[in-house]
Design goal:
Layout lengths: L7 H23 L6 H12 L8 H5 L5 E3 L12 E2 L2 E6 L2 E6 L8 E3 L1 H5 L2 E4 L4 E3 H10 L12 H8 L17 H22 L1 E6 L5 E5 L6 E4 L8 H7 L3 E5 L1 E6 L4 E5 L1
Parallel strand pairs: 5-13
Antiparallel strand pairs: 1-5, 2-6, 3-4, 6-7, 8-12, 9-10, 9-11, 12-13
Amino acid sequence: MTKYKLNKGELQEHWNDQIRFIQKSIIEFDAGDEKEAKRIATNLRILFHNTRNSKSIFKQLNLQMTFYSCADLYTPSNLLTSWTLLNIIFISNEIQYQAKLSNSSRCFFLRFDDWWNEIIFDDHYNRFTRRDIVLYIADQDGGAHVDPAINELFAKLSKMNSLGWSDRNGNIPTNNPAYHAIRAIANELLISICFSQIGLKKRIKQKNKEFEMRIVDDEGRRYKWSKTEIIFSPETMKIVEQDRMEKRTLYIDEYKDGKKIEYVG
């Protein structure tokens, strides 16, 4: 069967459609319908997920973007569980996860692969990346498909409080951390697009600062690491050194509107 090949303009229209769908779902999510995360995850999957048989819209368009990461720095030796894209809040005597939509701590732009595969959860059973959370929700939790049985590790994270947070009375969070991670990822994407539209003015290499990504497994899960930027103990460094290292360079990116942000490239 002869197939019609989409031109760049048509692919761009599909990209724009998915972004518009995400923006509409964000409005509903923020109005209280947190299950809109399922729609957002499906849109993100269409934009970014590659398989043997299909290319993402992002790859087909060959977009030259860097990706905003508001995730807190992850430390693999942390005795506490990690949820780098979330805050914990108290509302009407309930504990809830809340997507981190701004970050007073240090933020970076990353290459796509580093952003997509960056660890955002560690519940001491498993480490989850942005890619993991998007695909679990889109493929198993009702985004594009409903599995009668979902991955046990994802179930522990999303349904069984494997992050282990509770208040002094033993009350646990009442909402789904994975859904709020999706909300944060969507926000990062929209910020990334905004900066790409503003346009980069100049990129300056930072001196005397070593930066790298540490790769933890064959799936490419990773985290940011720096021997000159992060405070760590010798015990932590022994754990970090078990993970494969890929060198990165730390830059200051200045945009045409005057904003500056660090880029790990």
